[in-house]
Amino acid sequence: MSIEKINNVVSTYFEENPNEKWIPAKKIMKSLIQEGVFTKDVKNGLPLRKVLRKLDAENQLDKIPLLHAERVHENTYWYFVKEGEKYESDQTINPITKKERGAFHIKNSDEFYLVNLCNQVLNKKASRKHTFDNLLGNMHKKGKGRTKLPLAAYYEDLKLAIDFKGKKVDSEAREEQLRIYGLRKKEVLDRKKIKYLIINFTDFECDDNQKLIRNEAQDLSVLKQVLKNYH
Length: 231
Known about the structure:
Distance between the termini: 43 Å
CATH topology of the largest domain: Endonuclease, Chain A
Oligomer: single chain
CATH class of the largest domain: Alpha Beta
CATH architecture of the largest domain: 3-Layer(aba) Sandwich
Order of helices and strands: HEHHEEHHEEEEEHEH
Radius of gyration: 21 Å
């Protein structure tokens, strides 16, 4: 299987169809067959989907730079997106759940507070809870679907991603999972040539419940030192 040939076919398609911003991956099956990547089509793009699923399982989706994986619950929909364009989902957005409504309280979190301060120090606005299509957690227990691993903050212009650590977790298993995910994030971000910075909550003054005291002047001073090489 030639990933290079797939990339060439995708690039050629967008060159020959300049008005197209993105397409379902199955749309280029005919071209892939003509180029000898596959011998025939089965079930409307299944041979290509198998290749993409294998790359996904191996955390290697970045080998196809124009690929976009749209993950909806346990399903993944594959698209190719023209360089410089962004995929705009046409999937129906379901009403938010009770758990998701609780996420609105995120603005009161220590992480949200610290990212605000990072924005001040860097004079940039972070993409919060930023995800990449090929940065994924472990396979779900039922063996279907994987959740994108969020980064606390991502500064695209600086090629800088930030996460926070240092608060106690509820179990050793969760602590080990976070350690593995941290290594996975570094590996994927290294391949993308993105700097990965982990900031420890213990660098800041906290109360007995591990909540930040939020002495803004002092916290800014800490972050200026931590971020001195990034602005």
